[in-house]
Design goal:
binds (2S,3S)-3-hydroxy-2-methylbutanoyl-COA, 8-stranded mixed β-sheet, 49% helix, 6-stranded mixed β-sheet, 17 strands
């Protein structure tokens, strides 16, 4: 039987080995589905074939359905039908799972009669992260195999589990120590002539229960905005009552409904935007990164230690330096305390904690930088201090080492100019807490060499970050747009809104925290210092700082905090202070609706995003969205500011901005040319050729 180019087939002593062969991750596109269906149909009646093993080429078993096909016409067999066909084959079909079996890839193996996993196997149903539910029988077969409650958690967590966790659940029948294919072949042989265990026929582990209702309530409370989570609950519950085939039909209908939900489109867009951000326009393909085997972080403050922990967590030896013993000691103690919390929570084993601490050294002075492949500066946000550090590093580090500044808004080219090697310098803007936040803005300097950029992108991935290349300007992308939003917060407070109203409106939009509470968390004095350095006035925030209200650190900011507490409480003194500032600035106060608050916070940000694209500070609208989704808490199910603009309509946004500019006299609110162009091209996605 001829192989197709999407699968391979071999038959050994009566066992047919069918392997998915669709690099890089064996997605189940139309050609693969057709090849598997045709081959299994023939093997079902092939007299020399007694059993079938389903494996895969490459390091990923199967990444599931081809997401690029979603919403488009596709051809039979659809994935649910392909898997249903396993149920009419009366020969054993055993899955050999080496690598990740995700989404439709896991549903494929659920249709098999047994599953053998390799040690490195990971099994999961990430569909909810794409705003859909497992649409190829997973909502019905998984509960039958492992029970309704574990199945609901696996579906709604969206995260894969390792083979050793899958085994006790009954998701796999065995974990092979060595050759997974050989183990699966032996297992298939052992099933010949025995009754076949079809997942669809298992009924002893499903049925209504208080445990299931409790699990359902908890997942619904955790994800109120993701429609796919509620759908998973409904479909697992349907498994209790509906006949299998009727439930499959309901699952299909539900999947198609979700597919066309804007929240689902946003999540899928975000998936591809994150991957597209990894492709740097203008960086020659195959540019080899430089070695990254030893790192030094200059500055043992909160950011410096957080950055150093990223290296230790990735298994890279790292030295954090500062100007005196006490600063270094405090920094290392902070790292140890952070790891201790993870060990206490059970998210880190004591052994892993010890291994990471062993990789994390402390030194006084910068001499250690002489041995480093990469040096990251994380000292005070003042240009003179940073330039002095880089001038000294220039004298110390070896040729070819990468020098990075963690500045959050300063001019990277000016910092690079303090060295004789600007080609080796760029920005690596981590977000606090650096050991947690995934976003990494990679700031490309005017002279940054291509291989230094390639090194930074690979380092970002090695540190488990989402690296996005940005250009040099004040605040790069994220903070530049945040500054625009902050200016609107000030205007809204002056004109009549109160902190609790602003935060309530934007959290209802989907942010987990509003700008006022965020300011209290970060410390209002931080922004106050930065504004005074460049002469920017923020009347209300300045007044709060002048009154010593710096936020959580002083117990008083936009809100009031109980001693040691972090819960914001409305404070009448703030309303009085704001009213006084409004009067002093002769701004009449009025009631402002939540809708106006959300528009005035988001539309100017979108306008600034359009300017950022015009100036090529970001390459794509999707890059801007990846930054706001991963660094600033933009709700994932809303796709990011530029995706949101396409949903709202650029023309409507442009018109509203025109009104805002006229009413406020703030000409910076006039719609950018690219926003107008997006209006004419059906949106930013149409402009930049971003994936759907
Ligand atoms: N569809 C289409 N393209 C995909 C894809 C997918 N499912 N998964 C990855 N790609 C592309 C990706 O964009 C990139 O392309 C290349 O493959 C390598 O990916 C019916 C409806 C498996 C852990 O959500 O999590 O099944 O940028 O860089 O780092 O119920 O890929 O090179 O052009 O990420 O080794 C559910 C998504 C689908 C899994 C491998 N499945 N993929 O990581 O490679 S919906 C998922 C991943 C579904 C059924 C439902 C990861 C990976 P390019 P990569 P990687």
């Amino acid at each position: 039987m001829p192989d197709s180019e999407q699968i391979t087939l071999s038959v050994e002593a009566g066992i047919a080995i069918v392997k998915l062969a669709n690099p890089p991750v064996n997605v189940l596109g139309a050609a693969v589905r057709q090849a598997v269906a045709g081959t299994l149909r023939r093997l079902a009646t092939e007299p020399d074939v007694r059993a079938i093993v389903l494996g895969a080429e490459g390091r990923t078993f199967c990444a599931g359905a081809d997401i690029t096909e979603f919403g488009k016409q596709t051809v039979a067999p659809f994935l649910p039908d392909l898997i249903a066909a396993f149920d009419v084959i009366d020969k054993p079909i055993v899955a050999a799972i080496d690598g990740a079996a995700l989404g439709g890839g896991l549903e494929l193996v659920l249709g098999c009669h047994a599953r053998i996993a390799g040690r490195a196997a990971r099994l999961g149903l990430p569909e909810v992260t794409l705003g859909v539910l497992p649409g190829a029988g997973g909502t019905q077969r998984l509960p039958r195999l492992i029970g309704a409650v574990p199945a609901l958690h696996l579906m709604t967590d969206g995260k894969p589990i390792p083979a050793e966790a899958a085994l006790p659940l009954g998701l796999v029948d065995a974990v092979a120590e060595g050759d997974v294919l050989a183990a699966a072949t032996a297992h298939a042989r052992s099933l010949i002539g025995r009754p076949l265990r079809r997942t669809r026929d298992l009924t002893d582990r499903i049925g209504p229960s208080a445990d299931f209702e409790a699990a359902a309530a908890s997942v619904l409370a955790r994800e109120p905005h993701n429609p796919a989570v509620a759908a998973c609950v409904d479909m697992v519950r349907a498994a209790f009552d509906l006949p299998f085939d009727a439930a499959l039909a309901e699952e299909r209908a539900c999947f198609l409904r979700l597919l066309h939900d804007d929240r689902s489109k946003a999540l899928r867009y975000a998936f591809f935007a994150e991957r597209q951000a990894a492709h740097v326009p203008g960086l020659p393909a195959g540019t080899a990164p430089r070695p990254m085997s030893r790192a030094v972080v200059v500055g043992a403050g909160t950011m410096g230690v957080g950055i150093a922990m990223c290296f230790a967590n990735a298994g890279i030896p790292v030295t954090v330096t500062d100007t005196d013993d006490e600063a270094v000691r405090r920094g290392l103690a902070r790292a140890a305390e952070t790891y201790a919390v993870s060990v206490k929570r059970g998210s880190l084993t004591p052994e892993a904690r010890n291994a990471r601490l062993a990789l994390l050294q402390g030194r006084v002075g910068m001499a250690a930088a002489a041995e480093a492949d990469v040096v990251i500066e994380a000292v005070f946000e003042e240009m003179d201090i940073k330039r002095a550090v880089f001038a000294e590093l220039d004298r110390i580090v070896r040729p070819g080492a990468v020098l990075a500044t963690n500045t959050s808004f300063l001019n990277v080219d000016q910092i690079a100019a303090a060295t004789g090697r600007p080609q080796d310098v760029l920005g690596l803007h981590f977000f606090s807490p650096a050991n947690v936040m995934r976003l990494l803005e990679v700031v490309r300097g005017q002279h940054t060499a291509p291989d230094v950029l390639a090194t930074a992108m690979q380092l970002g991935r090695t540190l488990q970050k989402v690296p996005v290349v940005v250009g040099v300007c004040r605040g790069f992308v994220g903070n530049r747009m945040l500054a625009v939003r902050s200016a609107q917060v000030e205007r809204l407070l002056l004109e009549g809104a109160l902190p609790e109203q602003i935060d309530a409106a934007i959290t209802r939009f989907g942010f987990r925290m509003g700008p006022c509470a965020m300011g209290d968390l970060a410390g209002l004095d931080v922004g106050w210092r930065a504004r005074r350095a460049v002469g920017i006035v923020a009347p209300v925030s300045d007044a709060l700082c002048e009154a010593g209200r710096f936020g959580q650190k002083t117990g008083l900011g936009f809100f009031r905090y109980e001693a040691g507490g972090r819960t914001p409480h409305t404070d009448p003194a703030v309303a009085a202070l704001i009213a006084e500032v409004s009067e002093r600035h002769s701004v009449p106060r009025r009631a402002i609706s939540a809708e106006e608050i959300v528009e005035r916070l988001t539309f100017p940000m979108i306008n600034e995003g359009a300017r950022i694209l015009e100036e090529r500070i970001a390459a794509r609208p999707g890059d801007i969205d990846v930054i706001w989704l991963n660094g600033y808490g933009w709700p994932a199910w809303r796709g990011g500011p530029m995706f949101h603009a396409d949903l709202v309509g650029p023309a409507r946004i442009a018109a509203r901005l025109g009104e805002m500019a006229t009413m406020s006299g703030d000409e910076t609110l006039r719609p950018a040319a690219l926003l107008q162009a997006a209006a004419a091209h059906g949106g930013f996605a149409g402009l930049a050729g971003a994936r759907p």
